[in-house]
């Protein structure tokens, strides 16, 4: 298992671990993404997506995150599109209603593939 920890500011910490399963490359993310560490978020997405094999799943599990800024979601949407160009399907696991509200308010439902849990993201089934 690959593991990474990035501390970007005393009060702003972003940590993630990467692992492969038979179905996907899964990145589990902890902490928060805001203006102080959005560049670290973008770097993590690019670097991890680059290791995903063609025609595979790349899942970013944000279920344990405290906060995601709109900028982080825009970066996620961009990486989703970039990954699609390389034949990789990127999905996010987002459990927090506050983050889902940001996706909805920013009109990003079609560009950010958000799922409520890892099993749903692996299977590609969103709840009704």
Automatic annotation (TrEMBL):
Protein family per UniProt: Belongs to the anti-sigma-factor antagonist family.
UniProt protein name: Anti-sigma factor antagonist
Pfam families from the UniProt entry: STAS
Ranges for domain STAS: 14-125
InterPro entries: Anti-sigma_ant (IPR003658), STAS_dom (IPR002645), STAS_dom_sf (IPR036513)
Gene3D superfamilies assigned to the protein according to its UniProt record, in alphabetical order: STAS domain
């Amino acid at each position: 298992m690959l593991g990474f920890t990035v501390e970007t500011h005393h009060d702003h910490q972003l940590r993630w671990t990467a692992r492969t399963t038979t179905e996907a490359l899964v990145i589990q993310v902890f902490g928060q993404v805001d203006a102080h560490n959005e560049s670290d978020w973008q770097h993590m997405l690019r670097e991890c997506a680059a290791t995903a094999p063609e025609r595979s799943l790349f899942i970013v599990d944000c279920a344990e995150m405290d906060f995601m800024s709109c900028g982080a979601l825009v970066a996620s949407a961009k990486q989703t599109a970039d990954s699609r160009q390389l034949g990789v399907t990127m999905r996010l696991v987002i459990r927090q209603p506050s983050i889902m509200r940001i996706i909805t308010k920013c009109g990003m439902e079609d560009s950010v593939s958000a799922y409520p849990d890892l099993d749903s993201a692996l299977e590609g089934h969103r709840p009704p």
